[in-house]
Amino acid sequence: MQQTKHDAHHDHGHAHDHHEPGFWGKYVFSTDHKVIGIQYAVTSLIFLLLGFSLIMAMRWQLAYPGKAIPIIGGLLQKVLGDAAANGVMSADLYNAFGAMHGTIMVFLGVVPLAFAAFGNFVVPLQIGACDMAFPRINMASYQVFVIGGVIMMVSFFIPGGAAQAGWTSYSPLATVIPTQGQTFWLVGMVFLITSSLLGAVNFIATIIQMRAPGMNWMRLPFFVWAQFVTAFLLLLAFPPLEAAGIMQLMDKVAHTSFFLPTGLVVSGQIAAISGGGSPLLWQHLFWFLGHPEVYVLILPAMGIVCEVIANNTRKPIWGYKSLVYSSLAIGFLSFIVWAHHMYLTGMGTKISTFFQTTTMIISIPSVIILTCFFITLWGGSIRFNTPMLFCLSFLPMFGIGGLTGLPLGFNFSDLYLHDTYYVIAHFHYVVAPGTIFALFAGIYYWYPKATGRHMSEFWGKVHFSLSLLFMNLIFQPMFVQGLAGLNRRLYDGGATYAGLAEPAAGGMVGIPQFFLDLNKMISHAAWALALSQLPFIINFFWSIKNGKKVTSDNPWDATTLEWQTPTPPPHGNFLKEPHVYRGPYEYSVPGHSKDFTPQNEPERGASQTASAKSH
Amino acid sequence: MEIPYTVKPRPDTGLYNAKVGIWLFLASEVMLFGALFSAYILLRVGAAAGTWPHGLLNVPLGTINTLVLITSSITVVMAWVSLKLNQFGRFKVYQGVTLLCALGFLGIKSFEYKDKFSHYEIVRTDGKIVDGHLVEKTKDHVILSGHVIDPSEKVEHGSHTPEHTEITVPTAEIKKMENYGPWHSTYLAIYFTLTGLHALHVIGGAVVIGFLWGPGSKMWKTDPERFTNRIEVSGLFWHFVDLVWIFLFPVLYLL
């Protein structure tokens, strides 16, 4: 591995050989950004499936509370013991699955796929670099990520099971649960945060230092900008959660009281602690990461959508500069909106008002970005291939997710909606048919570059239509349930609070049966959504060997640099260093013979050198 | 394939890759310690009136440690300058002093830690508190070198240091006995967390600087410019570690 010799970090003075690396060097301990990207992609897709499986088991308990889980109930009992006695999901197991569903989906699934996988594979190619700035740190980042993931997985099998206090791990609850699941969660998180830190440093340094000649800032594809801002969010927002994690770990292991208040009563007894801690401190530090994390989830998705839409409308993106400045504005504002998750904690009306204001302001750049995409569609002759279909549905799906967030951002309406299924529906619309659809689009779009073969269009469209249908059948009814006041944390899906025929003493009427029956419908839709992923999974693996071969290095007739390499790109990417002469989205330029002009295509005639210098 | 700008700076940014990397890393470190300092502020502001302890730490020792780290900050720059002036021998001397300072700092810090872990507070069954360092502990009694506090008497804060005597407390009279570890109060919790994390940074920095001082310095012969860059980057990290202490010292020892 030649490049490690020139890596800016400490090597031990070994002489590196130049021969072809073997299997381990090529696929496992690779420093090639494309291999690392694919490692991240496969790993995080597996985690996504796992996180989805957890919720499928929970959906059984919500739809049919207290009944044995069919098919996998026996297996759960064998593997997890009493937590799933007789195949019935216990409350503890439900809590553990719920906490780990969120943790896995966010920290092990979507972020590694959106940021690490796509970023690693695409960013160096798009900026015309031969690799990342620090290839070995890149490899370390993936390895540390895997260690973190393994620790999270192991926690399912320790006595008492995995963490049970939600992915937000609010103290004191997270600290006083007498099992060690939370300790594993915290240690796992420290590894995941380290991995993300290494990745973020590497991405920013790469984008600053490794751009090809002529690739100035306003010629960067929007995807690169989105990853750049995302990397800054990860770099600066994750450390406070790491600090909070260290303090919670101290509470758990060294019996400190960072988050434990004086006079805390656990199981009817005053806890033997020094007290004096602040539960709100945890929430502040958690959401200081938690909210920028939302934009870590959505910005790379917007980047993918931008690339695919420009390519398939055959038009320049409308308002490229607005997109860039909006993403920077989002990046900045996302650091000052976190406490809108905490309106109900009694932190005071003045603070609530401040965060309500910033929350409303941050919706503006998000709307600008979405509007630019919509206007780009106007008058385009759109190619409706699988990646484009996913991106086209991203727009309204993310729109629904974003707009339903506004009532949660106002503290007066949040008082009513807080902790109901409405919240779940809102953020799942943002992340599931929003971000994950964009990620699917990215997979279908860049698959030919990574493998040299297309995924099947027909099965891609089947995957798309079924996913779109069932996503909506799952999450639309949750809005309805939430507006009816159904709390999101009920282990029996609300059966305890089922509506009474006669109003009870005190006027309590309960939740009408209709809203509880929706649970069954939602669960069936969730299982159907799982089946709808089968075409994708089979298509993904089958096409590696059997997909339609690409006929050129640039099968989508795209303008950006990743398509100007051999297919798949070799270690080092470009055959010769690319020079960039134009912006990223020069589609259908009048007077040109073809409807796309790659960024590295020189101007015709004598204007060539003048144009390259003028920027 | 060759990664560009690993040694020479990129013309338009004026930086080589590792320098960009270390500054980004330090930005993230600022957020890490920043969050812990915010926690300190919130815990202190939220503490019940009169419960936040003062004067628990040894200010002269803290001052010495501050001077030790400032000295190391100077020598780490001098080491880098020596390399720039092509004086490898002086580099060895200066960076050697940096390493000694790091060891000295850790030595003093561990002495302070030990002092806290052997410092006990005993609540007697009669409600009086015996506070002092452990002298002897047997089955029947505990001997502390310290003083007795009667919580029912109001004592002016910081009036005078009470005289230390050896006090014997029979085991039967001990209601609660606890040393001044992180579990003792939120002040000690944040003290141990902040200084512990800082000490880990000192150890990490010393390991890297030590490696580049010892076996890693072979690179001076083969690639002097790159070696100098490494000293600069590790030096930037070392300055950050010192700077954190410059904030930690007043916040924990003096305020």
Overall geometry of chain B comes to elongated
- Tell me the strand order in the biggest sheet of chain B: 4-3-2-1-5
Query: What's the overall average pLDDT of chain B, rounded?
Result: 93
Number of strands of chain B: 5
Question: What's the CATH topology label of chain A?
Answer: Cytochrome C Oxidase, Chain A
Oligomeric state of shown chains: heterodimer
Q: For the largest sheet of chain A, list the strands in their spatial order.
A: 1-2
**Helix-strand topology string of chain B:** HHHEEEEEHHH
* CATH class categorisation of chain A: Mainly Alpha
Structural class of chain B: alpha+beta
Secondary-structure content class of chain A: mainly alpha
Question: What integer value in Å does the Rg of chain A equal?
Answer: 25 Å
Total of DSSP H or I helical runs spanning 4+ residues of chain A: 19
Q: Treating each run of at least 4 consecutive H or I residues as one helix, how many helices of chain B?
A: 6
Instruction: Report how far apart the termini of chain B are.
Output: 55 Å
Strand content of chain A is under 5%
Gross morphology of chain A is: globular
Please report the distance between the alpha carbons of the first and last residues of chain A.
Answer: 36 Å
Largest sheet of chain B: 5 strands, antiparallel
Estimated radius of gyration of chain B: 24 Å
What do you see in this structure?
The complex is a heterodimer of chains A (615) and B (255). By secondary structure, chain A is an all-alpha fold. Chain A has a single domain, classed as Cytochrome C Oxidase, Chain A (Up-down Bundle), CATH 1.20.210. Chain A is 60% helix and 1% strand. Chain A is built from 19 helices and two strands. Chain A has a two-stranded antiparallel ribbon with strand order 1-2. In chain A, a hairpin with a 2-residue loop joins β1 and β2. In chain A, α5 runs antiparallel to α7 and α7 packs antiparallel against α8. The longest helix of chain A is centred in the N-terminal third of the chain and has 36 residues. The N terminus and C terminus of chain A are likely disordered. Chain B has six helices and five strands; from the N terminus they run αααβββββααα. In chain B, strands 4-3-2-1-5 form a five-stranded antiparallel sheet. Chain B is elongated and about 75 Å long. Chains A and B meet through α7, α8 and α9 of A and α1, α4 and α6 of B.
